[in-house]
Amino acid sequence: MNRWFQAASTHLLILSEAMAWFIVLRVLATAMDRSVLTGFQQTVEAGHLGGEPTAAALAAVQLLRRAVDDLASGPPLALVILTAYLALGLSWGIRRLRAPAAVAVMVGLAASVVLLNVLFHIALAGDLALWDGSGMQRFFTDPQATLAGERDTAAWVANPDPARLPGTSAGLVLVGMCALWARFIYVGRSAVSFPRVLRSFSVGFPAVLLATVLVPLAGVGVGVLALPYFVLAMLTVAVANAARSTRDWTFDRTAPWAVSALATIGVLAGIALLFGLLAVLEVREVVAPIGSALLGAALAVMEVVLTPVFWALEHAFRAIASRFASDALDTVQQGAGEPTPKQPETDDFVTPAWLTTSLRLAAFTVLALGSYWLARYLFRRVSERQQEPEYAEERAAAEGTGVGGLLRQLLPQRRRQPGVPRWLDRHAVYRLFARAVVDAEDRGVLRAPGDTPLQFAAMAAPALQAPMMQEIAEQFDRARYGRHYPSAEALAPLERALGEWEQAHPAPEAVGEPQLERAERLLEERASGLGRRRRPPPPGLNIGPY
Q1: Do 91 and 165 share a domain, yes or no?
Q2: pTM
Q3: Alpha carbon distance 491, 487 (integer Å)
Q4: Range scoring the smallest mean pLDDT among 127-131, 257-261, 281-285, 542-546
Q5: d(C-alpha 101, C-alpha 151), whole Å
Q6: What end-to-end distance do the CA atoms of the chain give, in Å?
Q7: How far apart are CA 434 and CA 428, in angstroms?
Q8: What is the sign of the dihedral through the CA atoms of 248, 465, 506 and 417?
Q9: Which of 271, 296, 320 corresponds to the end of one domain?
Q10: What is d(CA 458, CA 474) in angstroms, rounded to the nearest whole number?
Q11: What span, in angstroms and rounded, lies between the C-alpha atoms of 86 and 285?
């Protein structure tokens, strides 16, 4: 199942990133061509519609106006997706050749030149007649005509061909396709992973959002693709995250994940359909008066709330300004035409201007460097406190988010025992479950990152012949997720049973070591990041198919 998730995340990454490239290229190319065409249209109208225009001039201007309104430049979406797949396939093919570096570079360059020429032909000529090289030949023999188009208004009015309209986006399209090719050549260097998908989304989503904001200015009809891109990108992130699991996905694990992913996509699609329906029904005319009334009410509330604040600030400013009123009045009374009285010369030492400027520059430099090192120290302190072991049931990132979490971690708190994770201080059942996890790992049974406590116990208890682990996991699950904390009397039999099991099944490298000291040592190693290697199971230990 992981293989299918890996393949799905790869194809979803190609589709989502190709859609982002298409949106950005379409917006930029259309904006460039629309700007040039608008200026050309104004020139044609000013030169040929004055006085009594001819019928040919009127027809040419009408055709030009329709061309400006219907303008959509840039490569089509299918061509962008084809470019991405070809680049990724070429990168995979070179990697599977296992040829020397020099041979791989030559093969990659030769294949890139051939394939990019084919893609350029499709982008410039607009057809699939690859055997017809007239379009590419015309581009290389006279690139100015292809990139700039017709500039003579009289010639264009005499022969109003939309294909001869001026535009400057052809160069942008070629550069964008080369950048797209290089990007997916780089993507194909290794398998698609969750961090790479996350980085792609963190760059692509702001770019698409910015392009969507520029859509009304450019007059491009790609705003409707923003929501499908977001849905596709979120699905890519979810699938890539699921592909990280080292365990085989069974139906009881796949079904909840699929239902949650499909439900999220369904909600987003429903919202998109709702907004589309509202736009079709022109509900804006009905909602506009309601929105105006709500805006007026909000402004009235803000006026009531902020007026006392402005009164207080005005009173404070008046009090401060009154201290300088006499000096300002004297300056006004002197008049602009009266010469300023010359100050008497003194023999006192005057500080040079260069010295003052140098001191200010040094103070600013010290302040900037001090702020930089202080910020590094604070964030390093936060990141060190966020390092928790893998089996901690609280995510370290959630504790440091927000201003409150940052201040809680920076301010002094109750000191804990060195080397012991923070979540173990909450309750004795947490420490007991951590002890069971460490014991199982020390005997060759690891807890996968995606396993819940109950799933881990269901796998580890029969493999290690430790039935008490199932009950320990149940007590931990009720305490962690239901806040039903067991009493000390309820935990005493489980602690005793786990201790007896540890004595009966000692770890291979801990024979002869006292059990309590060994448990404390393992917990400290896990908290400090040590001891995370997978140890081989002892001979004769039945750990099942794991």
Answers
A1: yes
A2: 0.49
A3: 7
A4: 542-546
A5: 48
A6: 16
A7: 10
A8: positive
A9: 320
A10: 10
A11: 48
Domains: count for the chain: 3
Spatial distance between the Cα atoms of 160 and 63, rounded to a whole number of angstroms: 8
In this structure, the answer to whether residues 190 and 143 fall within a common structural domain is yes
What is the number of other CB atoms lying within 10 angstroms of the CB of residue 173? 21
Q: What is the CA radius of gyration of the chain?
A: 36
Residue 286 has pLDDT above 80, yes or no: no
More confident residue, 138 or 75: 75
Calpha distance 112→37 (Å, rounded): 34
In a domain, 231, yes or no: yes
Same-domain check for residues 16 and 75: yes
Alpha helix stretches (DSSP H) within 98-225: 101-125, 134-141, 143-148, 153-158, 169-187, 194-218
Residues 23 and 119 in one domain: yes
Burial group, residue 30, by CB count within 10 angstroms (0-12, 13-18, 19+): buried
Domain enclosing residue 431, as ranges? 422-528
Q: Between 434 and 426, where is the model more confident?
A: 434
Quickly list DSSP for 16-77: HHHHHHHHHHHHHHHHHHHHHHHHHHHHHHHHHSSSS--HHHHHHHHHHHHHHHT---S--H
Instruction: For residues 224 and 132, state if they share a domain.
Output: yes
**Tens of pLDDT, residues 148-158:** 455 566 666 66
Q: Are 203 and 16 in contact (CB under 8 A)?
A: no
Say whether both 80 and 134 belong to one domain: yes
**Tell me: the pLDDT tens digits for 35-94?**
777 777 777 766 666 656 667 777 777 777 777 777 777 888 889 999 999 999 988 888
For 271-304, give the secondary structure using H, E and C.
Answer: HHHHHHHHHHCCCHHHHHHHHHHHHHHHHHHHHH
Give the position of tokens 């969750």. 194
Residue 176 lies in a domain: yes
Return d(Cα 422, Cα 107) in angstroms, integer: 55
Domain presence at residue 363:
no
Dihedral pair phi/psi, residue 361, rounded to 5°? -65, -40
Band of residue 270 on the pLDDT scale cut at 50, 70, 90: confident
Residue 329 lies in a domain: no
Contacts of 205 (CB under 8 A, 6+ apart): 20, 230, 233
Are 115 and 229 part of one and the same domain?
yes
Same domain flag for 179 and 54: yes
- pLDDT tens digit sequence for 221-256: 666 777 788 888 888 888 887 777 655 556 566 677
